[in-house]
Amino acid sequence: MNPKLSLVIYRICLYVGIAVILIVALFDTPIGKGAGIAIGAVITLAGAVQVNLFYKCPHCGQYINPRGKQPPKCPKCGKDLNW
Ligand SMILES: [Zn+2]
Measured in angstroms, how far is the CA atom of residue 80 from the centroid of ligand 1? Predict the structure, then answer.
C-alpha cells in the first residue's frame, strides 16, 4: 500500500473510531454501549495496525511516526520521502 494512503486511512480510522465511541457513550443507540465502544476501538486499532505495517520509508523500510508532521527525509537512511 502507498504510505501516504496508509496515513490518510490511519487518521480517518482514528477520528471515526473516537467519534463512534463518543456517540455510543453519550447517546442511546440501538447497538448498545458495550458493543458500540468495542466497534469504535476496533476501528481505531485497525487504523493503528495498518499504519504500522505500511507507513514506512520506501527505501529502507524504517517505520515513520504517523503522529505529527511528516519528515521530508527518512530519519534512518536520509533519503527523500517523496511519496
Ligand atoms: Zn529510509
Answer: 8
Question: Residues lining ligand 1 (ion), CB within 5 A?
Answer: 57, 59-60, 62, 74, 76-77
**pTM: predicted TM-score of the whole model, two decimal places:** 0.83
State the Cα–Cα distance between residues 82 and 9, nearest whole angstrom: 18
What residues form DSSP beta bridges with 63?
A: 56
For residue 30, what is the DSSP state?
A: T
Residue indicated by cell numbers 502507498: 2
Q: Tens digits of per-residue pLDDT, 4-17?
A: 999 999 999 999 99
